[in-house]
Amino acid sequence: MAYVISDECTACGVCQSSCPVEAIAEGDPKYIIDPDACTDCGLCAEECPFDAISQG
User: Fold this and answer.
1) Which domain holds residue 49?
2) How far is CA 10 from CA 2, 34, 36, 55, in A?
3) How wide is the angle at C-alpha 6 spanned by C-alphas 4 and 10, nearest 5°?
4) Cα distances (Å, whole numbers) of residue 26 to 7, 29, 33
5) Nearest to 37 by CA among 53, 20, 54
6) Cis? peptide before 20, omega within 30° of 0
7) How many angstroms separate the Cα of 9 from the Cα of each of 34, 43, 47?
8) How far apart are CA 10 and CA 8, in angstroms?
9) Where residue 18 sits, what CATH number does that domain have?
């Protein structure tokens, strides 16, 4: 199951730079994760300073 980004996202970009498969893109007003590209590695959730990412 792909990870998802909650409304706690501040669009800091840390998650996007940590994603090894480039599944995270800048959205409006928060970043979004492409569920088809996400490999469930969890790196984005570990790196998010706002705890805005969790398993979907």
Assistant:
1) 3-55
2) 20, 18, 23, 18
3) 120
4) 14, 8, 9
5) 20
6) no
7) 16, 16, 12
8) 6
9) 3.30.70.20
Number of domains in the chain: 1
pLDDT tens for 2-15 read 999 999 999 999 99
Query: pTM of this prediction?
Result: 0.92
Strand (E) or helix (H) holding 32? strand 32-33
- Structure confidence by residue, pLDDT tens digits, 1-56: 799 999 999 999 999 999 999 999 999 999 999 999 999 999 999 999 999 999 98
